[in-house]
Specification:
The structure holds three protein chains of three kinds.
Chain A lengths: L6 E2 L14 H11 L5 H4 L3 E5 L3 H13 L2 E5 L17 E2 L11 H11 L6 H21 L24 E2 L5 H19 L2 E4 L2 E9 L2 E9 L5 E5 L2 E4 L20 H8 L4 E2 L4 E7 L22 E5 L16 E2 L1 H5 L9 H13 L11 E4 L1 H7 L1 H19 L8 E10 L2 E2 L12 E3 L17 H21 L12 H20 L5 H16 L5 H21 L11 H25 L23 H4 L1 E6 L8 E6 L14
Parallel strand pairs in A: 1-20, 2-3, 2-10, 3-6, 10-18
Antiparallel strand pairs in A: 4-5, 7-8, 8-9, 11-17, 11-19, 12-16, 13-14, 13-15, 15-16, 19-20
Chain B lengths: L16 E9 L8 E10 L5 H14 L22 E2 L2 E2 L20 E5 L8 E3 L2 E2 L2 H8 L21 H11 L6 H5 L6 H12 L8 H14 L10 H5 L7 H15 L7
Parallel strand pairs in B: 1-5
Antiparallel strand pairs in B: 1-2, 3-4, 3-5, 6-7
Helix pairs in contact in B: 2-6, 3-5, 5-6, 5-8, 6-8
Chain C lengths: L19 H27 L5 H13 L9 H31 L14 H4 L1 H20 L12 H9 L2 H28 L8 H27 L5
Helix pairs in contact in C: 1-3, 1-7, 1-8, 5-7, 6-8, 7-8
Classes of the chains: A alpha/beta, B alpha+beta, C mainly alpha.
The complex binds flavin-adenine dinucleotide, protoporphyrin IX containing FE (2 copies), iron/sulfur cluster (SF4), FE3-S4 cluster and FE2/S2 (inorganic) cluster.
């Protein structure tokens, strides 16, 4: 293996989960063994929370309520706009309201298996346990989940599971859950426990005496760069799918917060694990700035198909039943259209590669509701999916009630992120990472409806409990902006900002971003090969060089400058892209969303290599010119036995 | 909801629209602004309005000019960040968000005026970007249910009639975009506030704080400098989420009831 | 930390009573008082069709309601006071909301389109001002006779004839009455909304009722002047 690309360091392990008790007791045991901070002392402790999505919003609100001083940061104008707002489908919880055999254990089991045995059992079990409290909390906050005529909560099933455990609020579950957290946060802001920093972007982490003690942030409106200090820093900045330029993430979603923390010493785990969502609206043209997801719940009633013959370009409705290939139902009779996302995505790619794709460029498959409309009637379909159908019509100008939707996979979620232990603490003491920003409980693939669950579990229930163990040692010595570490971090940010503005080259940040994204999609997307990844790494290095010598950023940094914001984010995406490719290259197995062409079964399914790769790859940043260092965390499966996933 | 279902779907990429844009340019909150004319060419009808602005901005950056500042994030109609007044209509000619407005709503050769939301409660940050934090402060005044983490009862302890849950949901879909304020001749934030009051007021969980909530939220929107509502109805017609005028009636009803019951705003 | 939300502990700050919604309620209630008056007034006016005596009697009766229990024109003055209070309250609320709206948008749109706004709702403010001017003229004309050719001492019926035989005055009345009709078309619906009494179910009914009341009042008021103009009443 190419030694020049990385070196291997000491293994790493989580030491916080109490392994001496059975898995079902570990979380209570951890809480019991952890230290507490008495209410009077909480007032003397300050916590920075970066991000106001489900994870950050719920954490800031809960910590504020508990009596800590919280400083909250986000880059949009309002906390309510964090990208969690866009989640459509739903949130899982092991409530077993349907009496269909669900339990904490089954949710745990499904999630470990769904993650293709690359997630930590302890974390996943805790997630399943806490899931039930999330629903209670959200309902009490007034989240208007869908209900049945009896007044009780409704559930639906979601890809990759055989029970109905998904709670939803039409196609706007993330929005409603986020507003619950947002309202709780605003309540704390009003109560004075949370200080708000809207339109403020974290650009660096400040470490003092080995502890995370603050951040450098830029006020995006005035351009002012300033330092903020605390006893602990919580990062909840979301996912980094925008490294692909086109993704379902918001335009501002970035890796900057976690990437700069990574450069300060936090390990970055499994960066190459990305989830490709099977049901997105296909790309229209090269001006496209964003991909839009159609909720996975559509697969409950929509049937996926392509023509049997390649190059069949008749309109969908003219293709007779006998000449259609409902390939998911054919290949996976047990799960049919509800196979997990990675499988549904890859099969879509396969049929398109065979030349049977539909729509412009042959990059699309049909998602057909004709049968559902016939079976349930149009009003029922409208009630269930109306807003999604409207959205589709709005974007494509086509009527999905009359002709089948066209869908294609798109990058959607990043399972990788900063490495954290059971307490959600990174390798930098005092820096906690929650939500999509950590390498999370999702393993190599994420089942639908589990990211909302994780974000809220982390923010409402896990972090507020575990952080007290750390804060019990505080308050730490006061630091201010004259501290050498703060001065150095501040200067670094100023220099980079100045640099970006002074290059004055010939390409816009967006053009670099687009090129990087295409490269990542081609070589580090749905299918990855040794050769392709190497090519990508070489090219990314060139892009990086060109970026730093030829980018053009107009304006200055003492004002609202969106080009400058974008340039800073692209700079980080380029570096991250390289690490993702290195990670993808070193993992010579297929697992979950990571499909290495060299590692597949004769039927073309992903082939895991548990012998050699049942570990978390945690990467350490090294100074310029030196290859990153790989630290492995072994994964042991005590409760769910390692098995090839099969959804046949 | 108005929606544009045409037959422009499949087929190769179409381009070719040429447009004249008149865009409000304003350096900062206290500087005077003006309309500036730009031309964009070869615009595809499948582009979103924001993608068309991207094209303009790429052009401006390459010319060494200052690109037009405009807010956006999700670009799928849910975050509420985008929002400009297009030819005199908040979010433009369709009842949707600006990011979900597509150029197929315009014709080759059209001239398009683009302005920011205008309200003194929404100071202009730059060009088309405004500061909408006033809406957050209205929420801070009472747009929540006080339920500290961990204190919630079992979710099924309180059934909610489906009708109430559905109506609450309808109101809860407000994305806080501020188009209602932009469209209202009084620059009133009534529809936004009413949506939240209705959402929480329809649920059993929202009852204990119902009186205080409405009184405080209304007091706050006045304090922020929004206009008063005189039932004109432009707001609801512009609202991308179709929040209905009924919510305003409900707010009024709740407010008068609360005042009668003795609820008074916190000062 | 739990935010305490106990309404009984708080004092009433001055601002509380003057929220925009409160002003609107004042406007709605005073508006309703004025509508009720107008209904009665219209019915009274229609007595013109019963002839001069009947009409003058009616006018006389207005000034002697409750006599002799109440001295002189007490009842009329009571009505006038209620009306005056209503008008003042109505105008105060209208002006202060108008000012609030102006402050809420100091910089106008370069281009602004009305999408949902009806003509009636758009003319509420300037329409109101014109109505006020009309009412002043009208009182000077018919109640006080100050601007009436029949003068202060004429019989009410004669003053009315004098006014409406003049086409210019009749046209002015007609325009004003139509404006009042429009004001009410929007106003009645609006008051229902302001008082929190409209909802999706009632919307159609409320709209019908508003249109009906406004139309009946407009026609009812127009009948008298035009009948006089065209000599149906003399
Ligand atoms: C279209 C879509 C649909 C989805 N549907 C589902 C679903 O149905 N079910 C499900 O379980 N999951 C779903 N997901 C995944 C899920 O929504 C996300 O994983 C989850 O919401 C992430 O939450 P978060 O709190 O970690 O981050 P986010 O919600 O992304 O929040 C990030 C926060 O960090 C702030 N921030 C970011 N960078 C910085 C910085 N540098 N400085 C300061 N602040 C910063 C932002 O302002 C924001 O407040 C979906 C995702 C997408 C994109
Ligand atoms: C004296 C001059 C008047 C002025 C300046 C005036 C002005 C106004 C204004 C500005 C409004 C608010 C408009 C809106 O809701 O958009 C209004 C509402 C109303 N007006 Fe008048 N008006 C006048 C006379 C009248 C009269 C004579 C009547 C009835 C006979 C009347 C009945 C109403 C009613 C019912 C409303 C609706 C109240 C509400 O919206 O809640 N007004 N008026
Ligand atoms: C066009 C039709 C109308 C006619 C023929 C008419 C006629 C009259 C007459 C004859 C009087 C004098 C009554 C008396 O002194 O005994 C009067 C008074 C009055 N009218 Fe009218 N009127 C008309 C329309 C209106 C309208 C539209 C309004 C209000 C918007 C109005 C408001 C009043 C008021 C306020 C008074 C004074 C009442 C008082 O204090 O005595 N009138 N009207
Ligand atoms: S009510 Fe409608 S227009 Fe107003 S903020 Fe909410 S979504 Fe936007
Ligand atoms: S347009 Fe304005 S006046 Fe009221 S009904 Fe809507 S807020
Ligand atoms: S950018 Fe999010 S709603 Fe338009």
């Amino acid at each position: 293996m190419a030694l020049e690309l990385f070196t291997e360091g000491d293994p790493i392990a989580d030491t916080k989960a109490p392994m001496d008790v059975p898995i079902g007791e570990r979380w209570s045991e951890r809480k019991f063994r952890g230290r507490l901070v008495n209410p009077a002392n909480r007032r003397k402790l300050t916590v920075i929370v970066v991000g106001t999505g489900l994870a950050g919003g719920s954490a800031a609100a809960t910590l504020g309520e508990a009596g800590y001083n919280v400083k909250s940061f986000w880059y949009q104008d309002s906390p309510r706009r964090a990208h969690s707002v866009a989640a459509q489908g739903g949130i899982n919880a092991a409530k077993n309201y349907r009496n269909d055999g669900d339990s904490v254990h089954r949710l745990f089991y499904d999630t470990v298996k769904g993650g293709d045995f690359r997630a930590r059992e302890n974390n996943v079990h805790r997630l399943a346990e806490v899931s039930v409290n999330i629903i209670d909390q959200a309902v009490a906050q007034g989240v208007p989940f869908a209900r049945e005529y009896g007044g009780l909560l409704d559930n639906r099933s979601f890809g990759g599971t055989q029970v109905s455990r998904t709670f939803y609020a039409r196609g706007q579950t993330g929005q409603q859950l986020l507003y619950g957290a947002y309202q709780a946060l605003e309540r704390q802001i009003a109560a004075g426990t949370v200080e708000q920093n809207a339109r403020t972007e974290m650009l660096d982490l400040i470490i003092v005496d080995g502890r995370a003690r603050g951040i450098v942030a830029r006020d995006l409106v005035t351009g002012e760069i300033s330092t903020h200090f605390a006893d602990a820093v919580v990062i909840a900045s979301g996912g980094y799918s925008n490294v692909f330029y086109l993704s379902t993430n918001a335009k501002g979603s970035n890796t900057t917060a976690i990437w700069r923390a990574h450069k300060r010493g936090a390990y970055f785990a499994n960066p190459c694990y990305t989830q490709i969502h099977p049901t997105c609206i296909p790309v229209k043209g090269d001006y496209q700035s964003k991909l839009t997801l159609m909720s996975e719940s559509l697969r409950n009633d929509g049937r996926v198909w392509v023509p049997k013959e390649r190059g069949d370009d008749r309109p969908a409705n003219d293709i007779p039943e006998a000449e259609r290939d409902y390939y998911l139902e054919r290949l996976y009779p047990a799960f049919g259209n509800l196979v997990p996302r990675d499988i549904a995505s890859r099969q879509a790619k396969n049929v398109c590669d065979e030349g049977r794709g539909v729509g412009p460029g042959g990059l699309g498959v049909y998602l057909d509701f004709a049968e559902a409309i016939q079976r349930l009637g149009r009003p029922a379909v409208e009630a269930k999916y109306g807003n999604l159908f409207d959205m589709y019509a709005q974007i494509t100008g086509e009527d999905p009630y009359a002709t089948p939707m066209r869908i294609f996979p798109a990058v959607h979620y990043t399972m990788g992120g900063l490495w954290v232990d059971y307490d959600l603490q990174s390798t930098i003491p005092g820096m906690f990472v929650i939500g999509e920003a950590n390498f999370s409980d999702q393993g190599a693939n994420r089942l639908g409806a589990s990211a909302l669950m994780q974000g809220l579990a982390d923010g409402y229930f896990v972090l507020p409990s575990t952080i007290s163990s750390y804060l019990a040692d505080g308050p730490f010595d006061k630091v201010d902006d004259s501290h050498p570490a703060a001065v150095e971090a501040m200067r670094g940010v100023q220099e980079q900002t100045q640099k970006l503005l002074s290059i004055n080259g010939t390409r816009t940040p967006a053009s670099f971003h687009r090129e990087l994204g295409q490269l990542m999609w081609d070589f580090c997307g749905m299918e990855r090969t040794d050769e392709g990844l190497r090519k990508a790494i070489d090219r990314i290095r060139e892009i990086r060089q060109e970026f730093w010598s030829n980018v053009k950023v107009s304006g200055d940094w003492h004002s609202f400058n969106q080009t400058l914001e974008h340039a800073g984010r692209v700079a980080d995406f380029i570096e991250l892209g390289e690490l993702m490719c290195v990670d993808a290259l070193h993992r010579r197995e297929s697992c979950g969303g990571h499909f290495r062409a060299e590692s597949q079964t004769p039927e073309g399914e992903a082939l895991r290599d548990d012998e050699n790769f049942a570990y978390v790859a945690a990467w350490e940043w090294t100074p310029e010119g030196q290859p990153p260092v790989l630290h492995k965390e072994d994964l042991n499966y005590e409760y769910v036995h390692l098995a090839q996933r099969s959804y046949k | 909801m108005r929606s544009s279902v045409g037959d422009t779907g499949t087929g190769p990429e179409k381009r070719g629209m040429n447009l004249t844009l008149r865009v409000w340019r304003q350096q900062g909150p206290t500087v005077k602004g003006k309309m500036v004319t730009y031309k964009v060419t070869d615009i595809s009808p499948d582009m979103s309005f924001l993608e068309m602005l991207d094209v303009l901005n790429e052009q401006l950056i390459m010319q060494g000019d200052d690109p037009v500042a405009f807010d956006h994030d999700c670009r799928e109609g849910i975050c509420g960040m985008c929002g400009v007044v297009i030819n005199g209509e908040a979010h433009g000619p369709q009842q949707t968000t600006t990011c979900q407005l597509h150029m197929r709503s315009f014709k080759d050769g059209d001239s398009i005026d683009i302005e920011p939301w205008r309200a003194s409660a929404f100071p202009i940050i730059k060009d088309l970007a405004v500061d909408r934090r006033a809406l957050d402060r209205i929420i801070q005044a009472g747009g929540y249910i006080s339920v500290p983490t961990g204190t919630a009862p079992e979710a099924h302890a309180t059934p909610v009639p489906k009708k109430d849950a559905d109506n609450a949901f309808d109101a809860a879909t407000c994305i806080g975009c501020g188009a209602c304020v932009a469209a209202c001749p009084n620059a009133s934030s009534m529809l936004f506030t009413a949506a939240k009051v209705t959402h929480l007021g329809l649920l059993p969980q929202g009852q204990p704080e119902r009186n205080d909530r409405v009184v405080n939220m209304v007091a706050q929107q006045d304090r922020e400098g929004f206009g008063g509502c005189t039932n004109i109805g432009e707001c609801s017609a512009a609202c991308p989420k179709g929040i209905s005028m009924e919510t305003i009636s409900r707010l009024n009803h709740d407010l008068l009831g609360a005042l009668r019951a003795g609820a008074r705003p916190k000062s | 930390m739990v935010t305490v939300t106990d309404s009984t502990q708080r004092r009433t700050p001055k601002a509380a009573k003057t929220t925009s919604v409160f002003k609107k309620a004042v406007m709605a209630i005073s508006g309703i008082v004025l509508v009720l008056y107008l209904i009665a007034h219209m019915i009274g006016n229609l007595k013109a069709f019963a002839g001069a005596d009947e009409f003058n009697h009616y006018s006389e009766w207005l000034r002697t309601i409750g006599n002799p229990a109440l001295p002189g024109a007490t009842a009329l003055w009571l009505i006038r006071i209620v009306l005056l209070v209503a008008v003042v309250a109505h105008i105060w609320a209208a002006v202060s909301l108008w000012r609030q709206a102006r402050n809420a948008r100091p910089e106008r749109y370069v281009t602004k389109k009305a999408v949902a706004q009806s003509y009636a709702s758009r003319t509420m403010r300037w329409g109101g001002v014109i109505i006020l001017a009309f009412v002043i003229f009208h009182i000077l004309d018919l109640t006080l006779g100050a601007v009436n050719s029949e003068g202060r001492d004429g019989e009410p019926f004669d003053r009315m004839l004098a006014s409406f035989q003049n086409p210019v005055v009749t046209i002015f009345y007609a325009i004003s009455v139509i404006l009042v009709g429009m004001h009410l078309r929007h106003g009645i619906w609006s008051a229902t909304q302001t008082l929190g009494q409209s909802n999706r179910r009632r919307e159609v009914t409320v709209n019908y009722a508003a249109t009906a009341i406004a139309t009946v009042l407009t026609i009812g008021f127009l009948l008298t002047p035009f009948s006089i103009l065209f000599g149906l009443i003399d």
